[in-house]
Design goal:
The protein is an alpha/beta fold. Helices cover 33% and strands 22% of the residues. The chain contains 17 helices and 20 strands. The longest helix is centred in the C-terminal third of the chain and has 18 residues, at 362-379. The protein is globular, with a radius of gyration of 22 Å. The protein starts with a strand and ends with a helix.
Length: 465
């Protein structure tokens, strides 16, 4: 049976599109290559514990804030969100500690107390962050910060929490930098539970409205005539047809599905192939011994040197990390799981030898063990005794992202946006084919907010609004 909408990829963007369109009466089918939908917000089980892949906190859920209306429309505000402490991010740089507070007035008051000589600069910074425009896609974030602030430490403090995207001084647009900061200052929240709660809720909306979410369905070809997609073919030989197709996958994966048999698709394929990806992440997911570490209702960003930009270039050591604790569901006030995340280059994650069976070799395991110990050692600056409290741990690398999330080069944040090449690196939800549309973090912005807003824009264009 012909569908109204086929969605390739069941990540957050694809699932939100599916939920929106299904509610509006469209016949929707989501094709997901993995065992379950969710992409980078899905959780996985190890023993009795569940771990989140990429969901650690969300910004802007309070009324009149960026995500509130969208999450209300999707029914996601009904999930058990827990507001974080007023100090939602505690930043440790060397021997110095700084607090980033929720609410712009509190945020400014706290940093002005620490940097009184930068009062006017901070006020100017806050105004710019809250009213960023598309023109800021062409503004270099690193240059803007140095034009605004004269204190290098303050630059690093306001940048510390932006490990949620690639801090690359040559290319990072102010547009992306601002969106990775401002909504969390508005308000910051954790989910009491795992990321599958979001996916399951969205899947429920799709199915309750007559749609389908089909897993283990890897799309291998889009048959088209250089004007429109005619058929979607999966690896089991099944063929699907739809009036419109939405792709929630990396552009490099999308163009692999297209035959280069036309003038329009040829240009699109060339541009997508040349697109660079962002770096990946290494995560040490710790399981703690009972009642050893009190639960911190805030994140910790720890750096061993004052420069938080491009620190991943300094070698294979861990010089900076984000530390996020899962909300304890038993309510006893002690942390049970902690994630430590640090940027990791693809080349470093490939320091392993494949055995004849194709499994990762001992050198890869040694790399993960060494990296995890480095993460714990750095985190102990903020959480004394953490090492002794660890019962067991699990790791993931860019290689994990490639194998489980089909992420080219193991990237964590989609395609790299370049302020000097904004026309080429920022995407559009439209494709050269009249019935093929794009969504997901590679279009414009990474993160929960960016992907959600892009999904709404995709649906608006699909519906012809």
């Amino acid at each position: 049976m012909k569908q109204d909408i086929i969605i390739i990829g069941g990540g957050l963007g694809g699932m939100i599109c599916g939920a929106i369109l299904a509610k509006d009466g469209y016949k929707v089918t989501v094709l997901e290559q993995a065992d379950k939908a969710g992409g980078s917000i899905q959780s996985y089980r190890r023993g009795v514990h569940r771990f989140d892949t990429g969901l650690h906190y969300v910004g802007g859920l309070a009324e009149d804030q960026p995500l509130h209306a969208a999450f209300a429309d999707l029914g996601l505000l009904g999930l058990p969100w827990q507001r974080m402490d007023e100090c939602f991010d505690l930043v440790l740089i060397g021997d110095h500690r700084y607090r980033l507070l929720q609410g712009w007035d509190h945020f400014l008051e706290e940093l002005t107390r620490e940097f009184p000589h930068q009062r006017r600069a901070l006020q100017s910074y806050a105004a710019r962050m809250r009213h960023v425009t598309q023109d800021d896609m062409e503004v270099n974030a690193w240059d803007y910060l140095h034009e605004t602030f004269s204190d290098e430490m303050l630059i690093n403090v306001v940048s510390a929490g932006a490990m949620k995207l690639e801090l690359r001084r040559e290319t990072l647009p102010l547009f992306n930098f601002a969106h990775a900061q401002s909504s969390y200052i508005d308000s910051s929240w954790r989910l009491r539970g795992d990321g599958n709660m979001i996916t399951n809720h969205l899947q429920g909306i799709i199915e309750q409205n007559g749609g389908k979410v089909l897993t283990r369905k890897r799309v291998v070809q889009l048959v088209h005539d250089d004007k429109a997609v005619k058929k979607v073919i999966t690896d089991d030989g099944a063929e699907y047809s739809a009036d419109k197709v939405i792709a929630d996958i990396h552009p490099k994966l999308l163009v692999e599905l297209l035959d280069d048999n036309g003038r329009r698709t040829s240009r699109f394929i060339k541009r997508s192939i040349e697109t660079e990806s962002t770096f990946g992440m290494f995560t040490a997911s710790l399981v703690l011994k009972p009642q050893t570490i009190e639960y911190p209702n805030h994140n910790l960003y720890v750096y061993d040197a004052p420069d938080v930009w491009d620190f991943y270039r300094r070698g294979d050591g861990v010089t900076g990390a984000m530390i996020s604790s899962r909300v304890p569901e038993d309510g006893d006030g002690y942390a049970t799981q902690i994630d430590i995340m640090t940027p990791m280059l693809w080349e470093e994650s490939c320091e392993w030898k494949s055995t004849t069976s194709g499994r990762r070799g001992q050198s890869y395991k040694d790399l993960c063990r060494r990296k995890a110990m480095q993460c714990v050692k750095l985190a102990e600056r903020a959480i004394p005794g953490l090492g002794d409290a660890v019962e067991t741990y699990y790791t993931s690398t860019p290689l994990t992202y490639r194998d489980y999330l089909m992420s080219p080069d193991g990237n964590a944040f989609g395609t790299r946006k370049d302020c000097s090449r904004s026309m080429l690196t920022y995407g559009t939800v439209r494709s050269p084919l009249q019935n093929l549309f794009l969504t997901g973090q590679s279009v414009c912005l990474p993160g929960i907010e960016g992907v959600t807003m892009t999904a709404y824009e995709t649906c608006k264009v699909v519906k012809g609004l």
